[in-house]
Design a protein that fits this description.
This protein is mainly alpha-helical and 170 residues long. It is built from seven helices and two strands; from the N terminus they run E-E-H-H-H-H-H-H-H. Helix 1 packs across helix 2, helix 1 runs antiparallel to helix 4 and helix 5 crosses helix 6. The longest helix is centred in the middle third of the chain and has 27 residues. It is globular and about 55 Å long.
């Protein structure tokens, strides 16, 4: 069951389920907490250093095995939180994760790989385009829209919307 009931809410002419607002709110909180963790704490910076170059992180004294364990624990906790939030919306079955994972990959590519905030914006854009496509075209094409979108993104904007520009040092 949803956290706040099943009665839809009207916001600026759009009909939203309360569970969707929970997803948006918790996502915003998680993004801010992760941003703070990775930019303002030594543990977060150690995790970033380990992800960039494990050997260099070990050489400066970072316990890379502990960092790897913590990164797996954090990813498991975030995955569990996502599952708890999404289950009332999707009525999850054993194979629902495949499509969610593929759409998440499309969102990450759209936002720019390596950019967490870009992935969130990419996810919002994928969801918006899916809803518009289902409303204006046909709901039968709803799941195909992200995959057509990733083709256009990879052809015309391979770094995504917020991906860093690659420069060669000479």
């Amino acid at each position: 069951p949803a956290f706040s009931g099943d009665e839809p809410i009207q916001i600026l002419g759009a009909t939203l389920m309360p569970q969707s607002l929970w997803v948006l709110g918790v996502t915003a909180v998680v993004v801010v907490v992760l941003w703070y963790f990775f930019t303002r704490t030594l543990t977060g910076k150690a995790m970033l250093a380990t992800s960039y170059n494990r050997l260099a992180a070990e050489l400066v004294g970072i316990n890379t095995n502990g960092v790897l364990f913590m990164s797996f624990a954090m990813s498991a906790a975030l995955g569990a939180l996502g599952g708890i939030l999404v289950t009332p919306i999707t009525l999850t079955s054993y194979d629902a994760g495949i499509m969610l994972g593929l759409k998440g990959f499309v969102a990450a590519v759209l936002g720019g790989l390596g950019n967490g905030l870009g992935a969130v914006v990419g996810g919002l854009l994928v969801g918006l385009l899916e809803s518009l496509g289902a409303g204006y075209l046909s709901s039968a094409y709803k799941d195909a829209i992200p995959f057509v979108l990733i083709l256009f993104i990879l052809f015309f904007m391979p770094r995504g919307l917020f991906g860093a520009r690659v420069t060669d040092r000479v």
